[in-house]
């Protein structure tokens, strides 16, 4: 079984929490808001990559991890105790992530909850 290094994930998560804290002190700062959105995007992306990496690490045998739907992957990771939140919350993260990729919708995004 491959040993997975979570250092990069821990760094991006700390970076996201840091910018959320700063943004909450001044929600009118658009530069901080944009930074928070960007940090949320890459934290979300790295989270999904870490889940896939863990599932593919050799400890578990699955037909094809790449063909799993988002819902299947999150349900399985949750069932295995890898996540602190359920599919509903992860689906909310995914919806917010999808909003961040459409610049005209970015004003509708609120700070991700920590």
How is this fold's topology laid out?
Blueprint: H1 7-25, H2 30-55, H3 70-79, H4 87-100
Helix pairs in contact: 1-2, 2-4
What does this 3D model show about the protein?
This protein has a single domain, classed as Four Helix Bundle (Hemerythrin (Met), subunit A) (Up-down Bundle), CATH 1.20.120.330. α1 packs antiparallel against α2 and α2 packs across α4. The mean pLDDT is 80. The radius of gyration is 15 Å and the shape is elongated. The relative contact order is 0.14. By secondary structure, it is mainly α. It is built from four helices and no strands. It is 61% helix and 0% strand.
Descriptive tags:
Four Helix Bundle (Hemerythrin (Met), subunit A), elongated, 114 residues
Task: Provide a compact summary of the structure.
The protein contains four helices and no strands. The protein has 114 residues and is an all-alpha fold. It has a single domain, classed as Four Helix Bundle (Hemerythrin (Met), subunit A), CATH 1.20.120.330.
């Amino acid at each position: 079984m491959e040993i997975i290094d979570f250092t990069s994930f821990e760094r991006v998560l700390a970076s996201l929490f840091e910018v959320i804290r700063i943004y909450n002190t001044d929600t009118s700062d658009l530069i901080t808001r944009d930074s928070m959105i960007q940090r949320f995007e890459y934290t979300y992306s790295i989270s999904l990559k870490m889940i896939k990496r863990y599932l593919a690490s050799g400890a578990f045998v699955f037909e094809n991890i790449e063909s799993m739907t988002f819902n299947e992957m999150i349900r399985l990771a949750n069932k295995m105790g890898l996540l602190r939140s359920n599919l509903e919350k992860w689906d909310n993260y995914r919806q917010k992530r999808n909003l961040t990729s459409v610049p005209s919708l970015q004003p509708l995004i609120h700070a991700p909850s920590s």
